Amino acid sequence: MAHVAIVYHSGYGHTKKQAEAVQAGALSGGATVDLLKADDLTDSESGPWETLEKADAIIFGSPTYMGSVSGIFESFADATSKVWFDGKWKDKLAAGFSCSSSLHGDKSGALIRMVTLACQHSMIWVSLGLPPGKPEHPSDDAGNLNRLGFYMGAGAQAGNVPPEEEPMASDLATAEHLGHRVAEIAARHVKGATS
Ligand SMILES: Cc1cc2nc3c(=O)[nH]c(=O)nc-3n(C[C@H](O)[C@H](O)[C@H](O)COP(=O)(O)O)c2cc1C
């Protein structure tokens, strides 16, 4: 059984909803899942680093703040430098997701930051694996996966409303898809390593 860890930051709860959808998808893909807050991983000397060391895949999540990841997520990225020195995440799978208030809102900036982090750790990036959806369809249409048209990871849109209202069904289903995809690929990855 593959082990997937999700590390996310959420200032106001919207990316948390997305992270929970990624978690549900990874569980339905047969993985054991740990949902970790980046807030608890900003110090390389303390926090659940061993959980990440044991994971076969790490999925990164952050809101898009000023066109990139949030400051707390960036502090987590800085704190991974100790792991980097020891090469502990080499050949683990990685993937990412981000939520912002605009349809695009420069979420690509946050996702690219996560790709860079993963590649610095010699991880293997898993893309979203979906064609673009239909932006003209209602965002509460859960069948309209990837309505925002990202390829690197899962995007979600949430304005200045409570997280119970947004992100809407389409974006949460897209996040769930990402979790499921990473779990399935991680299971193959683990099997390949042991067979
Ligand atoms: C400091 C800050 C910077 C932001 N920058 C952007 C941005 O660059 N693009 C965008 O579309 N939304 C931006 N937003 C809006 C957030 O991305 C959006 O509200 C998101 O849903 C917040 O997620 P969270 O509740 O998980 O923190 C910003 C919000 C804050 C607080």
Task: Give an overview of the whole structure.
With 195 residues, the protein is an alpha/beta fold. It has one domain (3-194): Rossmann fold, CATH 3.40.50. Helices cover 39% and strands 17% of the residues. The chain has 6 helices and 6 strands. The protein has helices at 14-28, 49-54, 71-79, 81-86, 107-120, 169-194; strands at 3-8, 32-37, 57-63, 93-100, 124-125, 154-157. Strands 1, 2, 3, 4, 5 and 6 form a 6-stranded parallel beta sheet that branches. Helix 1 (14-28) packs across helix 6. The radius of gyration is 15 Å and the shape is globular. The model has no long low-confidence stretch (mean pLDDT 96). Flavin mononucleotide binds at residues 10-15, 63-67, 99-102, 105-106, 158.
- Class of secondary structure makeup: alpha/beta
How confident is the prediction overall: mean pLDDT?
96
Morphology: globular
Distance between the termini: 14 Å
Radius of gyration: 15 Å
**How many strands in all?**
6
Which small compounds were modeled alongside the protein?
A: flavin mononucleotide
How many H/I helices? 6
Here the CATH topology equals: Rossmann fold
User: Any idea of the CATH class?
Assistant: Alpha Beta
From the 3D coordinates, which CATH architecture would you assign?
A: 3-Layer(aba) Sandwich
Tell me the number of structural domains: 1
Strand % is 15-25%
